[in-house]
Amino acid sequence: MDLATFITTHETTIRLSCFLGILLLVALWELVAPRRTLRISKAVRWANNLGLVFLNSIMLRQLFPAAAVGVAVWAQDNGWGLFNLLELPFAASLILGLLLMDLAIYAQHVLFHHIPVLWRLHRVHHVDLDYDVTTGARFHPIEIILSMLIKFALICVLGVVPLTVILFELILNGAAMFNHGNIRLPNALDRYLRLVLVTPDMHRVHHSIQMDETNSNFGFNLPWWDRLFGTYKAQPDAGQEGMQIGVKGFDNPKETQWLPGMLWVPFRRKG
């Protein structure tokens, strides 16, 4: 069995192992070298943020048993998508597929900020009053469903192979946990690392309560799209320790930190 076949066959186990491993690593890093002092009980936030992750995981398994990999297998078997028409070499297809899917996630993220009805869903991610590794995984179930449908369409249009889909999701989930970490990097390391990867200090700006900062640094993995399309902001105006996290109007922990309140956020007439 070659590596591609092994990864595709054991996708669920590999994804779960990577999620738990990176979650634990970043969580320990947050304890050793925190960037900011948290305002809300970590136990409350973790229980509810991860509770939402668990809810979304169960929902996706019920709605889309084959998930994105199943769609990629179907598209490949039926010759759907640009890459199947072009018959690119495997390596070129893999690299180009990862880049284009990352660009698509950037574009989707921008749309979820600028289309009001989509912002109502996405602000569940932003109303977290603190910022740590669990923030990177808290999204409203309806946004999760829409994101999955968008991903299905993208896979069919591009015709990316199943391995590309698996690697992209592993990279994206890992990067999201890393760059949402409440972790301190040396300034020199951060300056050079953000040339190739979205760092916690770079993405934290995106969670500022100031809307001009919220509407910047949309990248989850690669930082190049923000620089290319003019949405990059190096640092928050108030500094990393001084900036306020969240969304204006959502300062009640019952609305933002507890699972029932999170699920109701899109239907509140504010923010």
Automatic annotation (TrEMBL):
Q: State the superkingdom.
A: Bacteria
Note the coiled coil stretches, chain numbering: none
What does the UniProt keyword field contain?
Membrane, Oxidoreductase, Transmembrane, Transmembrane helix
Regions crossing the membrane: 12-32, 53-76, 88-112, 148-172
Enumerate the spans annotated as Fatty acid hydroxylase domain.
Answer: 95-231
Annotated membrane topology is:
Multi-pass membrane protein
Record-level Gene Ontology MF annotations: glyceryl-ether monooxygenase activity; iron ion binding
One GO term (biological process): membrane lipid metabolic process
Q: Does the keyword Cell cycle apply?
A: no
Q: Where in the cell is it found?
A: Endomembrane system
Cellular component (GO) terms are: endomembrane system; membrane
Keyword Chloroplast assigned to the entry: answer is no
Its protein name is Sterol desaturase family protein
- Per the UniProt record, the source organism is Pontibacterium sinense
